[in-house]
Design a protein that fits this description.
With 259 residues, the chain is mainly alpha-helical. It has helices at 4-38, 42-52, 57-60, 63-66, 101-113, 119-136, 164-176, 180-185, 192-199, 203-220, 229-257; strands at residues 154-157, 160-163, 226-227. The chain has a single domain (27-257), classed as P1 Nuclease (Orthogonal Bundle), CATH 1.10.575.10. Helix 1 (4-38) crosses helix 11 (229-257). Residues 1-20 form the signal peptide.
């Protein structure tokens, strides 16, 4: 009986550790949403607040991942990524009949711009859009079908087995040990000219930018590599830059939709 309190404390701490670890997977999306909030126009802020009853972009940014466990939303799984071979172009490559990240983003934009759509449908697609713009700026979400966007690309991360996709989705941010709000608050201070430059282009232009990073990652990483501090030194600045670009571009897109 005397051991019970210690066992109880251990279980509580273990539960907290698991929950905290799971939360790291959401940090990138929430940082992107938080950064976007800073760059919304007053008109866009009002429209989104009215539509979402005050829910922040950071909070809604993880919704598209949260519904994955529900069979009713299984059809939206392929919307999180776009795959085509290195050396090929998205335009020339066969499109998935199940949809992809580019088709998903364009669908969300169309729904949000359609005055005949229901509020419920607009809320749903706004949540998806916030998430998908984040996915668009994660280089491994613009990868190759052969290894499932890096999910079959096995590496070690600080001595533990994982895959390259997981390194970019969660492991680097987890090792960096900053909350999403800290990541957003410590994003680079940019001039008006720099902001305008980041906001330029179309969805596919932003996709190809991520694709270029994906090709660089594959060129500098081999299957079975032991990744750690050196990899973080090389790529954490790139990752943070992608989070900021995603937030700035998300804001520009939302400002245009709700103008």
């Amino acid at each position: 009986m005397k051991r019970f309190p210690y066992i109880f404390i251990f279980l509580v701490l273990a539960s907290f550790t698991l929950s905290a670890s799971e939360d790291w997977g959401r940090n990138g999306h929430r940082a992107t949403g938080e950064i976007a909030e800073k760059h919304l126009t007053k008109k866009a802020k009002r429209a989104i607040a009215e539509l979402m009853n005050g829910e922040s972009l950071a909070l809604m940014s993880t919704y598209a991942d949260e519904i994955k466990s529900d069979k009713a939303y299984r059809a939206y799984g392929p919307w999180h990524y776009v795959n085509f071979p290195f050396g090929a172009t998205y335009e020339a490559h066969d499109k998935s009949d199940k949809g992809d990240l580019i088709q998903a983003i364009n669908t969300c934009i169309s729904v949000l711009k359609d005055a005949t759509e229901t509020k419920e449908n607009k809320v749903f697609h706004l949540k998806l859009l916030v998430h998908f713009i984040g996915d668009l700026h994660q280089p491994l979400h613009v990868g190759m079908a052969d290894d499932k966007g890096g999910n079959d690309f096995q590496v070690q991360w600080f001595g533990e087995g994982t895959n390259l996709h997981s390194v970019w989705d969660t492991k680097m941010l987890e090792s960096y040990e900053m909350t999403y709000s800290e990541l957003a608050q410590n994003s680079d201070q940019l001039s008006k000219a720099q902001l305008q430059m980041i906001q330029q282009g179309e969805i596919t232009d932003w996709m190809y930018e991520s694709r270029s990073l994906c090709e660089k990652i594959y060129a500098t990483t081999k299957s079975g590599d032991k990744l750690g501090y050196s990899y973080m030194y090389d790529y954490v600045p790139v990752l943070r830059d992608q989070l900021q670009k995603g937030g700035i571009r998300l804001a520009a897109l939302l400002n245009s939709i709700f103008s």
